């Protein structure tokens, strides 16, 4: 790929930049980033790339454009780049939800432009270019969404791009994607936020310093609940329907759990706890987590 | 301390054994353990200690007795050891709840014996002597419960014992303890179990393999949800009242969260997410977790 444009150079965007440069995937890498802090960090990396300040002043046809900003910023950036897109360009993103965001992108994007959404499963609680890593995508899933009328050759090209970055590629439709990640990612984040909120509510109510005793479990949730607020607001709003249905099942199960505790229902509780234990083993077998007690923290 | 008896030699018990031996805290260490698997591992450690098979055959006055079994096994073991206790003995445990378990212990324990419950905050998702570690208590909190009529000298002795094992000691009453840990440990575990249960319910309902995409958040919960089922059943049942009240506030908050998503209430969601982020910083500052993104996993 001759010309690649990365829009947004935070954790994910700067990791794409580092990986593309290190794997020599493109001759010309262009960056569009507003944050002075991120730009400073990128400059220090001494990676050969061009930082675009003003789209008025350039004249390039991009082969690949990747949106790495929060999803709520896609629309305004599409207006900026439409004129640089040709029938050879592939436009993609790294956003965490697909149905609504894809609909919005298609509304704004110039006609007949190839749009294939991507979702690398490689987020973290930290944000910003400073935390970027060329190996961020290595051995992680990257889901590509097969939109209608997408040419095989374009899909293959994008698949190859992510594979070069080290990712394992899965292909599905937007609806399927948004359901799966509402359960495996969006609900967990929401639950973590809610748990930390509940703990701080108790702190205020009882005027006690509870947080100092968080090593018994709470601290794990606090990591996920420290994730970027703009990104997660966008996810919660754009995957509203799936997330609300996941919350409903969660509350239904929680009420059953509460009732089993109230009634001291031994066999039901033990069954529940044994079954969830099996899931951890499956996750480790699928190489979705490291096989060390306590995440190898101590 | 001349004679120490450790009852139950799983993760915590065998860690006490390793630490007591390594710090040369006691001349004579006695072990009572039923699991052949744990005994085999302890024998391999080549730690000088005596494994008791039958209490009928011994005649020792213990200075310190530590219950390291699940809480539901305390009662039957007290009957076995009562005759070896004197007014010099300190009896303690390592259990995760205190009000009910302490009441039950006092019912069974011989009159005028010093009973000071302990709770080292150093659990893990793994169990068994194989995972024991002499540094398990290092820099971790150990909460001691001040029961009525406890002599200062005994409390100081037990405090010193845990300090020698590397722990930071906090003293509180049973009621306070059970409330604090219902929020910082018991609720998080229950929520993790419930989240993994909800994900597997969705898997069955939709006949999809969701778990393979768990790196986006779910995997963190699966670690906690892999904890020992007997231990956690005992915790949920013995701290019933506090846990039920914590679940109720959690559900109330979750319904508010759901409503904010439904109404796309931007300012409320952003405020919630920013506030929970601050808690992570506090936890790291309090040295309750490591200061590395993603727990330093990658």
What can be said about this structure in brief?
Two copies of one chain form a homodimer. Chain A is an alpha/beta fold and 298 residues long. The first copy, chain A, has helices at residues 11-22, 36-45, 74-81, 99-108, 152-164, 174-206, 218-224, 229-238, 240-262, 266-285; strands spanning 3-7, 28-32, 50-52, 64-67, 90-93, 114-115, 118-120, 141-145, 168-172.
Instruction: Provide the spatial order of strands within the biggest beta sheet of chain A.
Output: 3-2-1-4-5-6
Mean pLDDT of chain A: 96
Q: Tell me, what is the CATH class of the largest domain in chain A?
A: Alpha Beta
Can you tell me the overall shape of chain A?
elongated
Number of domains of chain A: 2
Largest interface, and how many residues on either side?
Answer: A-B, 102 and 102 residues
What is the count of helical runs of chain A? 10
How far is the N terminus from the C terminus of chain A?
44 Å
Question: What would you call the structural class of chain A?
Answer: alpha/beta
Question: Helical percent range of chain A?
Answer: 40-55%
Number of DSSP strands of chain A? 9
CATH topology tier name of the largest domain in chain A? Rossmann fold
Gyration radius from CA atoms of chain A, angstroms = 21 Å
From the 3D coordinates, which CATH architecture of the largest domain in chain A would you assign? 3-Layer(aba) Sandwich
The CATH homologous superfamily of the largest domain in chain A is termed NAD(P)-binding Rossmann-like Domain
Strand content of chain A: 5-15%
SSE series of chain A: EHEHEEHEHEEEHEHHHHH
Q: What about the largest sheet of chain A?
A: 6 strands, parallel
Oligomeric assembly: homodimer
